[in-house]
User: What shape does this take?
Amino acid sequence: MRNVLQVLLIVSILVFASCGRNNTARHIRNLGETPYQEDSVLVAYGYHPNRALILLDSALLLGNINDYRGQFIRAKIYSKSLLKQRQDSAILICEQLLHHDSVVNAPHEQENIFDLLMISSRTKTDFEGYIKWATQKVEVCRLQGEETEQWRTEAEIGMVMAHLGQPEEGVVKIDEAICQLDAPGSIDRMDAFIIAVKRKITVLNNQGRYAEVIPLAQRILDRLDHYEQHADDYAEDSYRLSWSDSPADRDRYIDFSRAQANGFLAGAYAMTGDTPHARECLSRFNQSGYGHSFGARRMIIPAQMALGLYDEAMVTCNEMVYRMGSDTINDDYALILRDRAIVARAKGHVAEAYDLMKRHANLAKVLSDSLHTSEAHDYAARYHAQEQELKIQETEAASRMKSMIIGVVVLLFIIAGAFSLYYRRQRQIISEKNRALVRMINGTPLVTSADETEETDEPYEVSDSEGPEESETSSALFDTIDTAIRTEHLYANVSLQRQDVCTRFCITRHTLNNLLAQHAGSSSFPQYINNIRMEEALPLLRDNPSMTISAIAAAVGFTPANFREQFKRQYGVTPQEYRQSL
Assistant: This one.
């Protein structure tokens, strides 16, 4: 007992010391269901980033979001901003998060951070930075066996390489990605294939190789047609795309992808002089739901102009300007000015064309100059981060004394509890000695508490030292129980208990435990049942690719979450990773 007290004392000291260093003491107690939750922040940032930042700060103060998730969400909000300073802040936060304990040994978290770094670099038009982060993401995907995401990212890198003056190397990389992804298998793989094809189309359009665009765009349409006709052949186990919860998303995705393919075809046919096919594809594009979005209208202007539909092109330009409102310092508006100048020149309005081209040149210079201010924004972002760190240190210093007081109180409670346990144990030992003495006086043999509660009529009781005949009997009994559990699928019952088996075969729990220890090599009934469930789950995962993970878990007696945890613990991979490895 003295050793127990020493251990408790050491634990108490450690608790006291950890309380003194606890940085979370500054959080207010979690107030439960409030608007200041992670879900609320992520919903708000899509339409009101500043409101999302206010919610995030409140959620951190309340302790509803931990520090790591808070920094990650802040970087996510910043990455969607058009302000250079916020883009720089997003990159700075992500670079720091890559060294966080929650990320170092978590490849999935690393992928999420690399995605944010890629988004921010692309928004800043920092293509060298984009390739740097994308290359690191590819390596993480490769090490984790995530081939689809690996080749999707390789295609993105190829397009950026072509933009940086390496068109041949970029096209080779994109072609390799298309080749690796060109096979039906899952919705995610189809999406990655379509993205890779679109990236090559972008490169070919920039190089004026319009005739090569036509077969590529047609491949997108063919793949979408194949998916609609053979949807059952495409697994819906993607973490990016799944229509299980919202089937309407499937129709929007198909409409979006098919519209873009028709837009590519319209532009390519127009540039190659095939006016009938260009008009036909343009009509299909305009009839789609996606065709009325801002990005779609920007995409279709070159095709309209190539077909000589100058009035329609101007209507599209005016519509885009209206949607932009006062935000006209961007690349889209610069391209609209250039397109208007081309139309004005085509109609013979030379003065107007000259004025528009002059405005285009001036705006392009402003946009180019803004790229050189990134270093100043980086310094500002670093200063902002240091300022936040100083505030955190001040808060920690103010809460340290409170933490120490709490630690002392906890230590006193632990010591008091230890002495209380020691006192009760001593009383129990004295009581047991007295009871034993009374039994000896009355001539009653000593028995343990387990012996006192054990049943006396046990037709299948198995002793510790069995003879040959008893061993055969226990083996036969175990075979009977094991066969019944497997053939009658008793293991599929999630609520199956040890007592259910004991009642079924008229044996005691002690007997069942002995049988499992001698013939199943299991230390407990749950372990034995879980082993059977795992044995039954493996062929279902291997031979039934159309059967979902949740359905397999239910078929063998697991909940989906418990199935994933037990499978990962026993085999070192999740059920989904095992199925993909096949």
Residues 377 and 383 are 10 Å apart (CA to CA).
